[in-house]
Amino acid sequence: MDTIPRLRRAMRLRCLPDRVEAEVEDDFHHFGVALQHDGVTVTGVVAWARRYPWTTCAGATHALEAIRGAELNIHPSYLFAFAAAVSHCTHMFELSAFAIAHAAARAGDRLYEAEVSDELAGKRRARIIRDGALMLDCELEGDVVSAPSPYAGLNVFSIRSRDLKGIGPEAAELLLILRRIVAVSRGRLSDLDAIPDIASLGRPLNCYSGGPKKVGEARRVIGSTRDWSAGPGPAANSGPPSVGPNR
């Protein structure tokens, strides 16, 4: 896929004795979260926004205080049952779900690299790589996985985070990443800088900036989009996640 226009997204996690530091970055976003814990529950949260599409997105860093007290659980769907995702930045909330699972598993450093090609003749290809190993390589027709089994026929937007608790943690992680890269890739279909505010999208966004309290304030951050279709992706030369917003 090196020469095919595509959306590329990287998520980096680092596990320390009493906290997990995590960052996610793609064409349109760059967010970070540091979760402090006591080995049983989340005791503190620091989040930061480095690059984002709407002026209100950075305010969502404070909303994550609501996940203080969440239990450490190896399943990434757990946080979606603990708190209402629609009250949060989608990307910081999902990043926190992965960080909690990572802390519970007592894992070391981890890097997820995901990509989905732009549509060509109605078809796309998506790949997810974890720590250099290919974990998922699938074809899509529109938003439906056409191959391989066991996901053939699955519409990625039919995936509900809470419902994933019925499958293993690793499979749930892959499906969450797949759903997100396909959703984010829609941004490549428009010149977002030509859209003055989030309300002008003409469709609901179930997130912090798209919610009823902020939708009227959310203005476009001009020039915030990147394109990693070719060359090094967003994880290139990144090193460990930063420990806070002022690195």
What would you note in describing this structure?
The chain is of the alpha+beta class. Helix content is 17%, strand content 26%. It has an 8-stranded antiparallel beta sheet, with helices on one face. Strand 3 and strand 4 form a beta hairpin.
Give structural attributes.
single chain; 247 residues; alpha+beta; 2 domains; eight-stranded antiparallel beta sheet; 8 strands; 17% helix; globular
Largest sheet: 8 strands, antiparallel
Strand sequence of the main sheet, in spatial order?
Answer: 4-3-2-1-5-6-7-8
* Number of E-state strands: 8
Mean pLDDT: 91
Poorly predicted tracts of residues: 239-247
What is the C-alpha radius of gyration, as a whole number of Å? 17 Å
SSE order: EEEEHHHEEEEH
Give the class from helix and strand content and strand pairing: alpha+beta
Number of domains: 2
Number of continuous helical runs: 4
Strand portion: 25-35%
The gross shape turns out to be: globular
| N→C terminal distance | 33 Å
